[in-house]
Amino acid sequence: MTWAWITVHDTAPDARDGYRWLLIRCNRRTGELAFYRCFSARRVPLATLVRVAGRRWTIEESFQTSKGQTGLDEHQVRTWTSWYRWTTLVLLAHLFLAITTVAERAKPTPAGLIPLTLNEIRHLFNRLVMQCTDNITACLHWSWWRRHHQHRAQQAHYQRQSIEEP
Questions:
Q1: What pLDDT is recorded for position 165?
Q2: Torsional class of 41: left (φ above 0), alpha (ψ -120 to 50), beta (otherwise)
Q3: Which of 23, 84, 109, 128 is the most buried (most CB within 10 A)?
Q4: What are the distances in angstroms from CA 45 to CA 6, 8, 37, 40, 55?
């Protein structure tokens, strides 16, 4: 990615004091341009604006994960209080899964398996804690089997990618 910035002057009578920029990102492969309008109360370097602009994707990815894994988008809003409680509960559940995933990935992954993913941890938590399954060994074996086959698929994909690249 190539980044550029242009200082923008706001002539509106109610404009706040501060610095305004138009941040431009150019994709080197496709030539596609993306624009970000930026404001800061104090002058900041280009690297800071780029880092903040890049955080947008992390935040957006977290919301997408919360929707898919913990049901952030499954509440029917009737009152602010119920929405607030639902959103708080869902985001706490997502936080639990994210922290557990990071803690598990800090440990070395056994050979031939992919690291535990947030999705896999959610699945295991549901089966082992929420449903109180009787056959813990079968549940853990199923998780191991799934991670093993995902690892094999990942290795085949990487091998195919290395052959196809010039």
A1: 62
A2: alpha
A3: 23
A4: 12, 15, 15, 11, 16
Q: What is the CA radius of gyration of the chain?
A: 23
- Per 3-state DSSP, the chain is made up of helix, strand and coil in percentages (nearest 5) of 55, 15, 30
CA–CA dist 60, 53 (Å, integer): 12
Tens of pLDDT, residues 57-95: 888 888 898 998 999 988 888 899 999 999 999 999 999
CA dist 48 and 103 (Å) reads: 29
The model carries a pTM of 0.65
CB distance 121 to 101 below 8 Å: yes
pLDDT tens for each residue of 117-139: 999 999 999 888 888 777 888 88
Task: Say how far apart CA 15 and CA 58 lie, in whole Å.
Answer: 30
For residue 137 the two structure tokens come to 């060994």
Classify 19 in phi/psi space as left (phi over 0), alpha (psi -120 to 50) or beta. Answer: beta
109, amino acid identity:
T
